[in-house]
Amino acid sequence: GDSVTQMEGPVTLSEEAFLTINCTYTATGYPSLFWYVQYPGEGLQLLLKATKADDKGSNKGFEATYRKETTSFHLEKGSVQVSDSAVYFCALSDQGQAGTALIFGKGTTLSVSS
Amino acid sequence: DTEVTQTPKHLVMGMTNKKSLKCEQHMGHRAMYWYKQKAKKPPELMFVYSYEKLSINESVPSRFSPECPNSSLLNLHLHALQPEDSALYLCASSQVPRQRNEKLFFGSGTQLSVL
C-alpha cells in the first residue's frame, strides 16, 4: 500500500541555520504531496503542497519540490527561526475507492534555539 | 470562517462513562474526518464522512461511534473506552470528497484521558 517515510528526528538547529527534512513516498497512483506542521498543543496546519511532478510548494520560507524520479518531497528552509520549532509531517493523498484521506509519515520534531 | 472547532479541548473519563466529542465547520465542506493521534506519533485515520454518509471506517472498535447529523457537524460517541484509547482526537474537513489534492483543515483536537 501507499506509505510515507520521513527522516528520524529530533532535528536540533540554531537560529538562521539551513533546514532539510527528508521525505520519500511509495504510491501506486499519482498522489498529491503535503507538508503539515503541528505546533505544541495544536492540530495540524497545512504548510505547503504539490499536486504533480516537478511542482514546487512554498510557504513562509519553506519549500519542497515533487520529484517523481526519486519519489521524494524534501522540505527545506534557508534560515530557520525559533518560532519554526514544531513537528513536521509529510503526507500523501491518493484517490481511493470510497474517498481520499491523508497518509502521514511518522513526523520529524524540529527544535530551533536562539 | 476557515476554522474547524472541536469541543471539549480536554476530557477525562472513566471506563464506564459515555461521552461525546463534537466537531463543527462552516466552510461548506462535504467531507469530514476523525483521526486519532498518540503522543509523538502521526495521526491515524478512524472515519471519513462523505456528503454526510460514512464512507471509510478503518476497522475502529465499536466503542467509538461516529455520527454526522448534518453537513456542518460531526460527533464521536465514546462508550466503555480503555486506557489505551487515551490520545488526541483530531477532526478535519475538506471541501470535496474524492479529490486527491484537497487540503484538509484540522481542528485543535480533544485531548482525551481514560482512567
Commentary on this structure:
Chain A has 114 residues and is mostly beta strands. Chain A has strands spanning 3-6, 11-14, 19-21, 23-26, 32-38, 44-50, 56-59, 62-65, 75-77, 86-93, 102-104, 108-113. In chain A, strands 2, 5, 6, 10, 11 and 12 form a six-stranded mixed β-sheet that branches. Chain A has a four-stranded antiparallel β-sheet with strand order 3-9-8-7, with no helix packed on it. Chain B is mainly beta and 115 residues long. In chain B, 0% of the residues lie in helices and 56% in strands. Chain B has strands at residues 4-7, 10-13, 18-25, 31-37, 44-50, 53-57, 64-70, 73-79, 87-94, 105-106, 110-114. Chain B is globular and about 40 Å long. The interface between A and B is medium-sized, with 29 and 28 residues.
Would you kindly provide a brief summary of this structure?
The complex is a heterodimer of chains A (114) and B (115). Chain A has 114 residues and is mostly beta strands.
List keywords for this structure.
heterodimer; A: 114 residues; mainly beta; 6-stranded mixed beta sheet; 4-stranded antiparallel beta sheet; 12 strands; B: 115 residues; 7-stranded mixed beta sheet; 11 strands; 0% helix; globular
